[in-house]
């Protein structure tokens, strides 16, 4: 498990090795310096080979180089008369724990500890209780420190990955909402266009029927006006009534065409939106959306935006994937409820979206309420007096 942070820490540890190398070269007998130089050169070569070829994908060759690296360090320890070389083996132990699993790293640390003691015995070092205690404490401290650093680095990396994933998911969700909005606008235009074509056809049929009927009655009146004036007058009155009825039907159709933007049922629009959100974001959304009277467009927009904002906040801030939506009307009041099962909160600090939603609801004489507790999700409740479409 190696990332940028672990690489940086490994470089720091190898800088420590370089300092130790300088100390050892300056404080040992001249006869051993050549062997020290060769050993340290081999360590540098092994380090760069490991970094270049085996740092990301540990392999058998990488493990062999690791063993050779340890043997060279033990050789330096054997020749060193200053005692500073213990730092090399402690750094090696730390690097092993850092770049391998903790279990494997600790196993290598224990092996190095035992071999180090054997090397000291071969050097005829005096291993009394004090020296053994100091060496044991050094190894233990190196292991504990490296494990702690590794844990912190891994946690930092995980936090960065989670933050990046959350940003990407939020960005995807916002793009999905934009696409949905465009889709709904296009769908509304298509349905309105079809409805207008249907109404235009009705006008055509109505006008054609009226004109045909009136023409026949006028022709009959012309023929009867001398022979039977009363019947001719009756035909004329019938034609006049046909014209009035036809004009009334045409006016209704023209009004429908003029108000074509309101032909869609509001509850159906919300259902379509919810289904698209469920499909595109893999959410569990339960909903009960009752048919609404023809509402003022401003009120429809408030409820629609409240639904969007509530789901967005539930996903982005509450980390929720489950929602429940209810919309009904009774006692001349619209009642809208949106509940999620996210993280929730104890102290509520409304952002721009919630403040804007609350302001709009209260601007049309409605009531806005938001309830939550930690780990119980959030519930948004809106009540608005019904204002029918003019």
TrEMBL record:
Q: Name one GO molecular function term.
A: kinase activity
Keywords on this record? ATP-binding, Coiled coil, Kinase, Membrane, Nucleotide-binding, Phosphoprotein, Transferase, Transmembrane, Transmembrane helix, Two-component regulatory system
According to its UniProt record, this protein's enzyme class is transferase
Bilayer-crossing residues are 6-25, 34-51, 71-92, 104-122, 128-149
Gene3D superfamilies recorded for this chain?
A: 1.20.5.1930, Histidine kinase-like ATPase, C-terminal domain
Q: Which InterPro entries match?
A: HATPase_C_sf (IPR036890), HATPase_dom (IPR003594), Sensor_HK_TwoCompSys (IPR050482), Sig_transdc_His_kin_sub3_dim/P (IPR011712)
Annotated Signal transduction histidine kinase subgroup 3 dimerisation and phosphoacceptor domain ranges read: 195-260
The record, for Pfam families, names:
HATPase_c (PF02518), HisKA_3 (PF07730)
Q: Which residues form a coiled coil?
A: 156-197
| Residue span, Histidine kinase/HSP90-like ATPase domain | 301-386
Question: Which domain of life, per UniProt?
Answer: Bacteria
Q: Which reaction does it catalyse?
A: ATP + protein L-histidine = ADP + protein N-phospho-L-histidine
EC no. given is 2.7.13.3
Record protein name field: histidine kinase
Q: Which organism is it from?
A: Clostridium zeae
